[in-house]
Amino acid sequence: MGKAQKYVLLGDATYPLQDWILKPYQEDENLTQRQLQFNYRLKRAHSVIENAFLRLKARWQILLKCDDCSLELLPTLVLACCILHNVCEAHDNPFNEEWLEGTEPTELPKPSQPAPAAMEDNRAEQVRELMCQYFESCGEG
């Protein structure tokens, strides 16, 4: 869209809209088709991320029981698993679907109440609008 953007995290409706956290538009009857499409694509992206983490945990099941290692080691352990996982994926190393049997998708803790409007960043709406325009220009998918 002609404007450089930095990376963003995907959040759900309970998170405050920030220029580094993208969240869906609040679901109501006033959403435009473009906003509905944005929400749909955000949900799809979120499901791809969840699936990637599920595969990562299934392939490297040490991540399921990290409570037996020191906190100082944990970031290195997770990084090593991510690197090895990406190497396996890049080289089409077969993923055994049976590995998923011991791995359940886990709900990560998140806020129980929506963030107050005062926490939202007005500039973030411009970022979301740019993404919305981008998704619209990409067509279906």
TrEMBL record:
<dbReference type="GO" id="GO:0016787">
    <property type="term" value="F:hydrolase activity"/>
</dbReference>
<dbReference type="GO" id="GO:0004518">
    <property type="term" value="F:nuclease activity"/>
</dbReference>
<keyword id="KW-0539">Nucleus</keyword>
<dbReference type="InterPro" id="IPR045249">
    <property type="entry name" value="HARBI1-like"/>
</dbReference>
<keyword id="KW-0378">Hydrolase</keyword>
<keyword id="KW-0479">Metal-binding</keyword>
<feature type="region of interest" description="Disordered">
    <location>
        <begin position="99"/>
        <end position="123"/>
    </location>
</feature>
<protein>
    <submittedName>
        <fullName>ALP1 protein</fullName>
    </submittedName>
</protein>
<feature type="domain" description="DDE Tnp4">
    <location>
        <begin position="5"/>
        <end position="86"/>
    </location>
</feature>
<keyword id="KW-0540">Nuclease</keyword>
<dbReference type="GO" id="GO:0046872">
    <property type="term" value="F:metal ion binding"/>
</dbReference>
<dbReference type="InterPro" id="IPR027806">
    <property type="entry name" value="HARBI1_dom"/>
</dbReference>
<dbReference type="Pfam" id="PF13359">
    <property type="entry name" value="DDE_Tnp_4"/>
</dbReference>
<dbReference type="GO" id="GO:0005634">
    <property type="term" value="C:nucleus"/>
</dbReference>
<comment type="similarity">
    <text>Belongs to the HARBI1 family.</text>
</comment>
